[in-house]
Every structure is written in C-alpha cells, then in structure tokens.
Amino acid sequence: MLNPSPLATYLVALLLAVAAVIICGEARLFPAGYLTPLVHLGAWCIAGVFLLRSIGNFHTFGFFKSVAGTPFAYWDTRLYSPLCLVLAALAAVVAASRD
C-alpha cells in the first residue's frame, strides 16, 4: 500500500517537530512575540490535521478504513488513529485556551 522513502519519513518527523514547537508556543512555554496570531492559527490547523488523520481516507487508514487484516490496519485501529484523535483534542484544548 504505502512504502515511504527515508526522505518522506524525515519530512514527517520534521513536521511533527514543528507542530510540537507551535503547540509549545501556543501554550506559552516561550514568548511567540509578533508571531502569536500565526502560532494560534497553526495550533488550530494542527488540531484539524490530526482530526482528519484519525478519520482517515475511508480506504487504507483512519477509523473508517475499509482495508482490514494487515498489520498496519491492526495497529492503525488500536494505536495510530486513537493517538491522532487524542492529539487533535489536546491541540484544540491548547488552542481554545487562547480564545
């Protein structure tokens, strides 16, 4: 189904690190300065991206996937999708605390 290259894996890791910095900035762990509105928007975007990932594409990943019986589908149902849902909720809580 999906066999990401090492470069794609590093890109995802970089994006997760950027998301962590944005959430930390939104949680006021460091001053965001003039980037505060951008950090706030980024926190809501992160919540949305993780929510969409947990819902999935209705075929290969997410809670509503149709493919089953593979090791990835097993772990996606039991670990990855619930984790993304929790991360979406937590990012929304952090973003909503600024409103």
Number of helices, counting only DSSP H or I runs of 4 residues or more:
3
Low-confidence stretches: none
Mean pLDDT: 95
Tally of separate domains: 1
Number of strands: 0
So what's the overall shape?
A: elongated
State Rg: 15 Å
Question: SSE order, as H and E?
Answer: HHH
Q: Sheet with the most strands?
A: none
What is the percent of helical residues?
Answer: 55-70%
Strand composition percent: under 5%
SS-based class? mainly alpha
Q: Whole-Å distance between the termini?
A: 41 Å
Give descriptors for this structure.
3 helices; single chain; elongated; mainly alpha
Q: Topology of this structure?
A:
Elements: H1 6-26, H2 36-55, H3 71-96
Helix pairs in contact: 1-2, 2-3
Verbal overview:
The protein has helices at 6-26, 36-55, 71-96. By secondary structure, it is an all-alpha fold. The chain has one domain (6-96). α1 (6-26) crosses α2 and α2 (36-55) runs antiparallel to α3 (71-96). The radius of gyration is 15 Å and the shape is elongated. The termini are far apart. The relative contact order is 0.14.
